[in-house]
């Protein structure tokens, strides 16, 4: 009998150590990213290299910025990122956090030297992902291109960092706000909707947003019609096309309205004649590739309705405090 008992105990022990048991133990995290890669962690990540700025933003909203050991290079190079982040993280202010890559590139040796549990990026080659995996470094790829993706990726990162409750809170709040906005938009008759033209930053007034984009989602949530019907993300148009669209309002991404007013050929456009040109500035507060697409939509909705700009700006401030927490939120709104 004693031999039977010992044999049974040995079988139980071997079963516990068998293939696949590691992933099933209590606390294991397994999910699939936007590119279909399986991401596995035995416990929430404690050291994170994030090379994609919308995901870094999500980490700050989750109040898990202490896990960051590496950030995108553009955080220091782009003042639109550096100024707000330096207000809420002294490591960024003093440029102490490593920058082992950016949205488009990753320095494998620099990443490995930081000994992270998790790397978050937008693009990464299969070879790099495999090499990191062999060193027990998980890789999560994000895209943040559409509303549902933004919510899923926020929830995923919350799970990977052990901040599921905070992620659920942010997702629920954002969904609730957008649902109220959708209800209001649905009540507006099609013929009464403002026709809006959106233009990206850095003087690119003929670079707009098509129907397959997060900014198009923002326009729809705001209850306005996107004059561009192209089924792509960021098409380029010409002056003749813009004139033929004749938008009622123009929404600019971090650029001055004078770029339109200075062009005589555009003077007959309704939005130009009526000075209905509005600016999402500073862009940090309206990034459509984060849940701050809510603030962008809310301001566009207010502009379309002719509301006082101060009223919607106060709403943005409240949302920033909700998204970043009382302490960091109040620091950030000093920039508005």
From TrEMBL:
Limits of the Fe/B12 periplasmic-binding domain: 47-311
SUPFAM superfamilies tied to this protein: Helical backbone' metal receptor
Pfam families with a match to the protein in the record: Peripla_BP_2
Top-rank taxon, per record: Bacteria
Protein name as annotated: ABC transporter substrate-binding protein
Organism: Chitinophaga qingshengii
Organism taxonomic ancestry: Bacteria, Pseudomonadati, Bacteroidota, Chitinophagia, Chitinophagales
